[in-house]
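Revision sheet: structure tokens.
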Amino acid sequence: MTAPIGIIGGTALAELAGVTQQDEPAWPETAYGAPSGPLVRGRFAGREVCFVMRHGRDHRISPHAINYRANIRALADAGCRQVIAIAAVGGISETMTPGRIVIPHQVVDYSWGRAHTFYDDPEGGELDHIDFTDPYTPALRQALIDAATALDFEPADAAVHGVTQGPRLETAAEIDRMERDGCDIVGMTGMPEAALAREAGLSYACAAVVVNKAAGRTGGIAIHAEIKATLTRGMIDIERLLESVVPTI
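Predicted:
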């Protein structure tokens, strides 16, 4: 039996259109508590998927307060072996323009104070220092790149994803520092999610959509107006991408 594909929905992807539910959404209890939202299990693009909302219903959970461990553990317990994470991000590099689909290849983690490992309590098992040289699984990344290219999205096939604490947006000086550090995009939820997936033995990749230019790079447009204007059409593209890639993996 083919393992279900895990999908983590981010900002503006609170549900996945086209899923034919097999069961009522469930709130599984894990050793790390309950996930952010109910686990929706069903058929999507011809494959079994498990979908969880990262920010919960009505987008109420702040990035620093998300129970990342429970979300990843719930997907693993449901039998998922591959996870596609959806994210809305800000563009730092010049080529990271609003509406662009980005498949990041690296992470710089600026977040703090989050429960970031399964190995800090007895439920985590024997300590393992995971190899995190490449935080995203290459084969799953390539599947996303190929699908986005076939859809003529002209995706950015590499980017360094800087992860900040949130929920506030960044200062212009912070974005300047991130650019000096080599970051191309900025978000608030990419870590510890990626590392936890690695600890859980899951293949993991991110499909991000740039919804605004980061602080100090907005070109005069109000940042919230820019985000609102881009989110809806960006998530339509993300759903098309998922429909295309899910049957291939």
